[in-house]
Amino acid sequence: MKRVISFLIIIVLLPSLLLAKEGMWIPSLLNKFVEKDMRKMGMRLTAEEIYSINQASLKDAIIIFGGGCTGEVVSDQGLVLTNHHCGYGAIQSHSSVEHDYLTNGFWAMSKEEELPNPGLTATFLVRIEDVSEKVLAELNDNMTEAERSAAVKEKTDALIAEAEKDTHYKAVVKPFYYGNEYYMFLYEEYKDVRLVGAPPSNIGKFGGDTDNWMWPRHTGDFSVFRIYADKDNNPAEYSEDNVPYKPMKHLKISLKGYEKDDFTFVFGYPGSTEQYLPSFAIDNIVNEVNPIRIDMRTERLDIMNKYMEQDQKIRIQYAAKYAGTSNGWKKWQGENRGIERMDAIGKKQHLEKHFMEWAAMNDQRSKLYGGLVPAFEEIYTNLEPYSRARAFLLETLFGIEISRFSRNFKKLVTLSNADDPDEKAIEEQIEKIRKAAKGHFKNYHAPIDKEITAKMLDLYFHRLNRDLQPQIITEIIQDYDADFTAYAEELFDDSFMSSEKEVNEFLDKYKTRKAKKIEKDPAYVLGEALYNHYFSNILPATSQWDSDLDSLQRIYIRGLKEYQKNRRFYPDANFTLRVTYGKIQGYEPRDAVAYEYFTTLEGVMAKEDPDIYDYVVEDKLKELYHKKDYGRYAGDDGKMHVCFIASNHTSGGNSGSPVLNADGHLIGLNFDRNWEGTMSDLMYDPDMCRNITLDVRYALFIIDKFAGAGHLIDEMTIIE
Ligand code: ARG
Ligand code: GLU
């Protein structure tokens, strides 16, 4: 009997215990129920210390770094930490053969040496406002989805205008729970963000794409920036007169380390998750869309790799493209495995079955929710071929560089073909294309693109229903006998867009109304064909279903909340600030294998391979390792800790996010998830999902001991 009772207790308690780590919470709402749970797990802060509009709080030290990462302020002079892969573009843009900062690293030894990055921004969140009532007051259930969107837009535009009035802030209103709630975010964007330091790639990107999404990990994925402001501490474009920004709050850095089961939390900007999809959607993603994306990318990666292996210059040129392509490729494979292992589709079907039974229990519910699941099923059945078409098209569009580049000429064509061409606008457009061409060709190798062009179209042709393929494929089949290589060969021979020289010659000689040559260019023709196919065929066919799905999802979540009264719902990620929390924990990836929760420099040395680019270890680092010269950055075990894992629920966009301890002190920088846990964007598994974090002590050790930039450490507030 006793056994039965304790078994029952376990069964009852288990879900809530496990769920404790799942979720990405809105920081202004922590006090509702999350704060209590966080404190129960060991946190020594209050919700008010994390997010407050009345006083400086931790949230004032968090930024959106650039367009898709998180960063944090770590000194009273606006010093910022983020990931190396987030600063990569900036580091690359300052790199040349003479100053190869990607390879060798970069360290400004004084503020004068810090490098400006036009276009790079650091954005602070001023406050969050729940505007649900105001927006929902304008809506009713009889509206069509289009009417609803229009009403939402009108109201949110007004709210935004009101919030921004007489300020330099930027307001954004975003839907939560598919439009059951709305929140407004007020931002302050700083525009002078300078590069302060970056480790060499063989530290910042150690393990490269091989180790990406993997645990155990040994990547020193950090870079250092500084925010500058005008004399009044307000945002300003770059100017020599700007001064280091004085933050309301900067994070203190703890050198104390952590132990198994210690509480941690993460602040950051996760981009997008889809936790409340029906089983049909998961089935579609895992069995239709992901396999197409994966296969298309396998081909592209193979082609890039073939050239990169042969030539050092090409390797550098394609490093970022390869990394970007590979990142999704690998993640989707992990996602598919995770979904399968968890039987996520089966679990969702089970939930849907019980939800329908519950809905059928009374008239009102059955009217509201009874039709949902069958409606989902019908739409996803209709969407299926189109979702395949969309996947092929998107991968082709992004995969073929030349047709993407050709889109730069679109506006020039329109301007030139106008009845009364605007010469000035044409000149400006030409200058724009020149600039784009410079960036594009710096990292371009036409033979790679040519092979990829042939391969993408070939896959498209062989693997998708003919009626969903763009018309141009039919033409290639007729004109080239389905020989896509011959087609690509001719395209690259004939197009003036395949070399920088030809593009510039063309622009030098370009006179108004000479758009014909552009319009006839085969790369431009291909670009037009692909884009037009999307906008004239795919989008019109799917947009009604997509909007129907939005409204079904909105009702479904409302229903689920009624049905699962005890479940703690959290909104899907939508690139707004979130807090997630968990514990320092290893995991068991498969039978008989257990992973520890941290890695050390010993592991870097064990992975060392001077012949493989991603596993080179520099002499200086080896020397420090052999002398065990870790200073105050060593762990209690005398080792140099490099990375650790914890059960915080994170996603893409959380890169660079601060990982904080129970006192809110910085202990690491989030930069990845484990491969076995990448399905967490669709379904979270507390046993398997871990976020991968760079131990902040390793970053400081590299800054101080490796780079000799101790003056940066002096700026920080260190807790020993
Ligand atoms: N997987 C991480 C993220 O999703 C890191 C990506 C960059 N690193 C790489 N080796 N590609 O962004
Ligand atoms: N590397 C990801 C990023 O850049 C974070 C890892 C994840 O997807 O969880 O945002």
Annotation, overall tally of beta strands: 22
Count of individual domains: 2
Q: Measure the end-to-end span.
A: 51 Å
Q: Helical proportion?
A: 40-55%
What would you say about this model in short?
This protein is an alpha+beta fold and 720 residues long. 49% of the residues lie in helices and 15% in strands. It has two domains: 2-121 and 191-274 and 570-719, Thrombin, subunit H, CATH 2.40.10.120; 279-560, no CATH class.
Overview of the structural elements:
The protein has 720 residues and is α+β, with helices and mostly antiparallel strands. The chain has two domains: 2-121 and 191-274 and 570-719, Thrombin, subunit H (Beta Barrel), CATH 2.40.10.120; 279-560, no CATH class. It is built from 27 helices and 22 strands. Strands 1, 2, 3, 4, 5, 6, 7, 8, 9, 10 and 11 form an eleven-stranded antiparallel beta sheet that branches. Helix 10 runs antiparallel to helix 18 and helix 14 (372-399) packs antiparallel against helix 23 (522-563). The longest helix is centred in the last third of the chain and has 42 residues, at 522-563. The chain is globular, with a radius of gyration of 27 Å. The model is unreliable at 1-20 (pLDDT under 50). The structure holds arginine (ARG) and glutamic acid. The site of glutamic acid has 9 residues, from strand 20.
